[in-house]
Recover the amino acids of this structure.
């Protein structure tokens, strides 16, 4: 009798397990209907859905499924999938630009060659050179360009006024430090708050000078004169006690919200963060160009930005390409992206009124005109597979430098560590 | 006598005060989480900090559902965790019983290998496992989320420890009386294992509920996401709505607390009713 | 006959889903990535480990955290369990749930929480300021960052271990305590001479499990400090993840994993020998 109940129990278990294997969604492209899967961060989901709906009018059998993920997760999953010979990968994914080259170096068959599809011939003129360069590998495009992060120096007009500092007088980083000293003396507020668990500011300073972490021969740029200038700037700020380190994103946002800093260096996305997280500070912020390292030098840089890659293992390469080509070069779709909080790199859309209107939060400054004007000035930067190592060592270097360690020593030590780690 | 009464009061205070402080430390973050869930995201980092409830509970909930389809996610997490506990408890308890109350060829090897396997960091086995399930076309299924970890060495260890403490004499006498092994297992041994089963169940549920890395890797569409994966998709972008995030975390925490509360009673009744002395 | 049936489901699942990946990653540890495919590389990965200053730092950090956090947490758990076991206590269930709750939180949640509370200008420093204590750089200094990780881990896991100990304590026969009272033993003597010895197998068990999880520690350093500052909280678990998923070097990551395995093996063996269990 007991044996019988065991038998029943066992078969119940088996059935359960088998049933489980049938459950859950599986990717599809059966029959006449084509459904493609795109991985993207939360913020892009409504845009892609709307664009897909519009596209469907001319392509009735075409469906888009957007899977939302955080950037880190997209990266982890893509890595896993590529290591497993392409299993589990979507048809397309929105990847942050600075990681795309890295994938191609390690996995040459990861993405579809977009140039070979004719994208470049037709649309290259509609995108800024630096953006196209960032998704170019060995001369060809491997992703469809989407949003960008033109950098600005965000500053608190009210604090500047209180200290009697005129923003127009800040043309070089030396001017910036002088202004910072004045502001600290007169108001007690630090000039720059930065996330010291990350390397955003230093990276921006490098890219302002046209450098990434490695040159095209694979040498670490940490030891170059540009890198030394950037590191020295941070140390000068620390020595003059105008630099505020916040550990982590939340802390950094907190420091902005609590008026602990007079400026912030970030991409255009900061506009959205300020407006949503700090409504009480409306009217107080403005944007201006980064100061240059020397008179007449570059005052522009980019931070962030992503583009669409198409997996080589996709079963719907052409359908996916056609949809993404539509999305990234369609005026209306890009306008929608702008409304949704992203900054498009598609040049023609800058004619839209969205870009020429004054922004109330910024005291009616036309911030979007500022940012769109930057796009053609931003220097190109080389991204490589080992950038992650470079970044991590730079973070350690940064920690030493703001504590007063000799810049040249620190910088060269970091360069050595990177070169030891990289094979 | 008065002095012993004073001593009693002193002892009681000496007991309660540190406990209450410790309890406060333990619980305060949850209170703070509820504050975040009922407020607007801009109140997250104010200085002085916002410590009172706001009125945005429904709004945050609604936004959260728009963002990540929270009801489906809740279902996924519950289904996966409960199924996992049920199946894993069965598999592991059976194995633990065999490994503690029987001597058979290979028992030492099996147990040693099981224990040794706990030392392998999971990050290392992630990719081979992923590859295997991918080639079986089982990715993004409940099977993938539940089955690979069913044999959970920790649970086997835990149950085995408890079985070892069960008097062999009782089993022996039942055998002499002519009872079959299965009857002995189900009717005699298992009933007094309730506390152990409850503790193991709690552990397994917790582990599966908060499991992040594997569900992240094994799911390829958002409708199969479990809580940690869904919540993660809300972070890691430049504009984070903390009201939503905190609301999500609150919802994610409630079932697991309920699970513990429910089994906690089982614990107690199991112990009071325990006739094994 | 019978035991084989009992043990079969577990063994089959184990072979498929645990043994196979373990062997596969062991093989991976002897391979190197080259142009998208893996090629055999002998012991190259393992040799590289010895020269890798970050690996050595991770090893050091992990051990420091292990040696300090695990004993503190287990002792605290024992004390709390003992307190909850006391006759004087009402509302035991209430306290028990309260202490257990941290173990239940999701990692995203409690990392955000702690990262905000431990800011230089955060609540905790404000609170300490009331006592005249100067601001502590919880997350910006390598030493204090380790302390922060230890605090977070202790907050999270003490309650869990406490529940285990409490359950075991309630299995200790009352007669033992009564007999000791008659002999004139005070509370502390009872604790050390009865409670602790009776709990020995459970204590060993929690010690081993805590050791294993600490040696693989990943979530907290990943979410709270990202291994910084200056690799001050880089742990072995985090380094494995970093090499595998950030630097795409899965062969190397697997090698690190196996070194961890060896270490765990040695430590567990020592722990068992020291307490004289099986």
């Amino acid at each position: 009798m007991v044996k019988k109940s065991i038998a029943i129990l066992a078969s119940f278990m088996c059935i359960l397990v088998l049933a489980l294997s049938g459950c859950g969604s599986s990717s599809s492209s059966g029959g006449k209907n084509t459904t493609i899967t795109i991985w993207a961060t939360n913020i892009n989901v409504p845009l892609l859905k709307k664009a897909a709906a519009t596209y469907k009018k001319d392509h009735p059998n075409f469906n888009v499924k957007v899977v939302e993920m955080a950037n880190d997760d997209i990266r982890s999953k893509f890595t896993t999938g590529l290591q497993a010979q392409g299993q589990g990968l979507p048809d397309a994914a929105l990847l942050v630009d600075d990681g795309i080259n890295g994938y191609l170096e390690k996995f040459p068959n990861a993405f579809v060659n977009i140039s070979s599809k004719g994208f470049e011939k037709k649309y290259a003129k509609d995108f800024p050179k630096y953006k196209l360069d960032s998704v170019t590998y060995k001369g060809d495009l491997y992703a469809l360009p989407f949003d960008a992060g033109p950098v600005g120096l965000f500053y608190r007009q009210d604090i500047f006024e209180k200290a009697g500092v005129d923003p127009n007088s800040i043309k070089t980083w030396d001017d910036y430090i002088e202004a910072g000293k004045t502001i600290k003396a007169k108001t007690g507020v630090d000039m720059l708050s930065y996330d010291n668990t990350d390397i955003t500011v230093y990276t921006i300073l490098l890219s302002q000078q046209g450098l990434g972490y490695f040159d095209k021969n694979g040498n670490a740029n940490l030891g170059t004169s540009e890198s030394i200038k950037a590191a020295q700037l941070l140390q000068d700020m620390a020595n003059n006690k105008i630099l505020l380190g916040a550990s982590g994103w939340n802390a950094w946002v907190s420091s902005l919200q609590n008026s602990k800093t007079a400026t912030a260096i970030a991409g255009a996305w900061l506009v959205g963060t300020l407006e949503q997280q700090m409504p009480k500070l409306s009217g107080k912020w403005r944007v201006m160009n980064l100061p240059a390292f020397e008179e007449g030098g570059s005052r522009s840089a980019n931070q962030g930005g992503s583009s669409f890659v198409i997996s080589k293992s996709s079963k719907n390469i052409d359908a996916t390409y056609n949809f993404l080509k539509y999305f990234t070069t369609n005026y209306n779709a890009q306008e929608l992206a702008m409304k949704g909080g992203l900054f498009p790199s598609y040049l023609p859309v800058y004619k839209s009124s969205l870009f020429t209107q004054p922004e109330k939060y910024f005291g009616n400054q036309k911030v979007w005109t500022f940012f769109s004007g930057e796009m053609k000035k931003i220097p190109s930067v080389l991204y490589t597979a080992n950038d992650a190592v470079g970044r991590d060592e730079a973070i350690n270097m940064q920690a030493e430098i703001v504590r007063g360690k000799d810049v040249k020593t620190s910088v060269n030590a970091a360069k050595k560590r990177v070169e030891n780690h990289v094979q | 006598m008065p002095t012993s009464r004073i001593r009693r009061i002193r002892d009681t205070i000496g007991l309660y005060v540190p406990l209450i402080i410790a309890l406060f430390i333990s619980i305060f973050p949850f209170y703070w989480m509820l504050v975040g869930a009922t407020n607007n995201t801009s109140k997250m980092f104010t200085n002085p900090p916002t410590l009172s409830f706001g009125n945005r509970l429904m709004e945050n909930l609604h936004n959260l559902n728009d963002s990540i389809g929270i009801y489906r996610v809740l279902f996924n997490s519950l289904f996966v965790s409960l199924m996992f506990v049920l199946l894993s408890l069965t598999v592991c308890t059976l194995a633990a019983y065999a490994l503690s109350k029987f001597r058979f060829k290979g028992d030492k090897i099996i147990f040693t290998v099981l224990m040794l396997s706990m030392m392998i960091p999971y990050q290392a086995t992630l990719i081979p496992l992923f590859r295997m399930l991918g080639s079986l076309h089982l990715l993004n299924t409940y099977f993938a989320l539940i089955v690979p970890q069913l044999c959970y060495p920790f649970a086997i260890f835990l149950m085995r420890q408890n079985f070892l403490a069960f008097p062999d004499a009782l089993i022996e006498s039942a055998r002499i009386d002519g009872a079959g092994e299965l009857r002995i297992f189900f009717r005699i041994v298992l009933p007094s294992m309730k506390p152990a089963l409850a503790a193991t169940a709690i552990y397994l549920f917790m582990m599966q509920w908060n499991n992040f890395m594997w569900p992240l890797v094994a799911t390829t569409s958002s409708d199969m996401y479990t809580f940690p994966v869904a919540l993660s998709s809300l972070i890691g972008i430049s504009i984070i709505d903390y009201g939503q995030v905190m609301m999500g975390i609150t919802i994610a925490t409630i079932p697991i607390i309920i699970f513990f509360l429910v089994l906690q009673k089982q614990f107690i009744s199991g112990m009071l009713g325990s006739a094994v002395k | 006959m019978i035991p084989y049936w009992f043990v079969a489901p577990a063994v089959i699942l184990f072979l498929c889903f645990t043994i196979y990946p373990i062997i596969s990653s062991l093989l991976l540890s002897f391979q190197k990535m080259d142009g998208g495919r893996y090629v055999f590389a002998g012991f190259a990965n393992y040799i590289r480990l010895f020269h890798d200053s970050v690996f050595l730092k991770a090893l050091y950090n992990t051990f420091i955290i292990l040696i300090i956090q695990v004993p503190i947490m287990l002792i605290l758990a024992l004390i709390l369990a003992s307190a909850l076991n006391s006759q004087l206590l009402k509302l035991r269930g209430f306290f028990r749930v309260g202490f257990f709750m941290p173990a239940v939180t999701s990692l995203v949640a409690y990392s955000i929480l702690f990262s905000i509370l431990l800011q230089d200008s955060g609540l905790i420093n404000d609170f300490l300021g009331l006592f005249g204590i100067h601001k502590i750089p919880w997350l910006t200094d390598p030493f204090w960052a380790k302390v922060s990780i230890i605090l977070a881990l202790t907050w999270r896991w003490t309650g869990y271990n406490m529940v285990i100990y409490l359950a075991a304590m309630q299995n200790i026969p009352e007669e033992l305590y009564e007999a000791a009272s008659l002999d004139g033993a005070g509370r502390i003597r009872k604790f050390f001479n009865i409670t602790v010895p009776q709990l020995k197998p459970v204590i060993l068990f929690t010690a081993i499990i805590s050791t294993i999880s600490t040696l693989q520690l990943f979530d907290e350093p990943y979410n709270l400090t990202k291994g910084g500052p200056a690799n001050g909280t880089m742990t072995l678990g985090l380094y494995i993840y970093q090499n595998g998923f950030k630097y795409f070097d899965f062969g190397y990551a697997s090698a690190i994993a196996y070194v961890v395995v060896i270490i765990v093996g040695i430590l567990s063996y020592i722990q068992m020998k020291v307490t004289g269990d099986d």
Notes: Residues 268-277 of chain B have pLDDT under 50 and may be disordered. The radius of gyration of chain B is 24 Å. Residues 2-37 of chain B form the longest helix (36 residues).
